[in-house]
Specification:
Layout (H helix, E strand, L loop, with lengths): L5 H29 L5 H5 L14 H16 L21 E13 L4 E16 L4 H9 L5 H19 L2 H9 L4 E4 L9 E4 L5 E2 L3 H11 L3 E3 L1 E2 L1 H5 L4 H13 L8
Parallel strand pairs: 2-6
Antiparallel strand pairs: 1-2, 2-4, 3-4, 5-7
Helix pairs in contact: 3-5
Length: about 260
Amino acid sequence: MPTISTRKFIALRKLTRALAETLRADVRSTLVTIEPLLRPRAVFGEHVQGHGKELVKGADRAFKDLAADFAEVAGSKPFHLPKELKSPFEVMSASLEMQPVEYSYTARGEREGKTVRITSPLKWVVNYRDYGLDELKRVLADRNRTEEQLRRFVLHFLLVEHVFTRQAGIREMLDALRFPVVVERRPEFGNLPITCVTTAVSTYRPDDDVIIETTEISGSEEFEEFVKVSDVSGMKDALKEKLVELVRTQGPELLDEA
């Protein structure tokens, strides 16, 4: 039987959706602000096909690393593409989008198992427009796809990872805002890097029985994780702690006056 009351379930669902809406808006606003710094040309310079030359420090090294990663990902499952990436390369899209992370999960009850689609509402995949995971799945399932279509997906996912990785200041800023960036991989996409923005507040799946019963009642094959309330109540102010430690080191007696 479910280990959560109906009242608590409803309260958690409302809280999770309210937090997801608020934090998603904050993350999106931040990404829009820094988007010019996350365009491929800002990192790879003249290695990006386009009008004119834009000299960027470290662009040659960045392209060399990108080409090496492209060879590894493109040449392996499920893509099996030619490994070479030539310069200059064409970027089809440089506008960032974000979607909640979704994954398949088999909940197992006492008498049955049920496979459902789980959403992590406080974790988002970041990709360039038109080159997201759903679009990639459709292309992989299309028997009439071309090598060029797959090549563009591999390239654009790699570009997102590289622009975040090579600009340490951006990741540090996002960390300070409590929106850390992580890179994941999924078996269905081989070594393809999937860049995600998360928050200081995590989510979790309740017991499998809860998932099975609620999806049976709703008639849905989807379930949304719950916010971990203890993460909210336990949040700390990193800047305050840093400054208090400085006071404690330099003049501990001053803390008594605060």
